[in-house]
Amino acid sequence: xxxxxxxxxxxxxxxxxxxxxxxxxxxxxxxxxxxxxxxxxxxxxxxxxxxxxxxxxxxxxxxxxxxxxxxxxxxxxxxxxxxxxxxxxxxxxxxxxxxxxxxxxxxxxxxxxxxxxxxxxxxxxxxxxxxxxxxxxxxxxxxxxxxxxxxxxxxxxxxxxxxxxxxxxxxxxxxxxxxxxxxxxxxxxxxxxxxxxxxxxxxxxxxxxxxxxxxxxxxxxxxxxxxxxxxxxxxxxxxxxxxxxxxxxxxxxxxxx
Length: 257
Prior knowledge:
Radius of gyration: 21 Å
Helix content: 55-70%
CATH class of the largest domain: Alpha Beta
Distance between the termini: 28 Å
Structural class: alpha/beta
Number of domains: 2
CATH superfamily of the largest domain: Alpha/Beta hydrolase fold, catalytic domain
Shape: globular
Number of helices: 10
């Protein structure tokens, strides 16, 4: 799509280690920055297009590098826009497992679930065996951890147990305004991995932030698809998808008012 519009593309295929390890994302983000600096002309316009949480997590690391280098006047290109396809989403084990199982055939998913269920039962039996052998104080310590977790959930919801996720969503919320980006969020009401409601709330908050900040130059647009699967919006509705991206690129390349 971007090539058809005349835009060169640097494609990064995400690996599980990049999604799971912040240090690996930071290293990859710095390498991306050096690569783009080497292959682009001075003051070139750059658009970051994220797919799912893997791409969005890398965007957060890359935007942090660009923001730091821009402050030090070392960024020869301009990150002007960001596209979020089916992201950001919840960072949890269940979502990770579903994302791994999603591309598999129904038979493969069934066999994988059976394997995970068997492994879970084995781990449960081992945990119970260890629990019977430990003393009173280790048991009390575990109970205190459970009570602490329940208190955190009662105070801040399930996301309170995943501080990394809260920082992730906050970064997506503030980076666009700080950098004056034009942002496009595309998601679906039938995505099995990423819920639409939190994304709606995020976009609403970002739009309020822009309205309250007189110095912000960017924009925030949402495009909601109906009946499309995770990161399958372009496949299902290519005209709608391409039109939304084209409008974003027009904003990103428009001369300053």
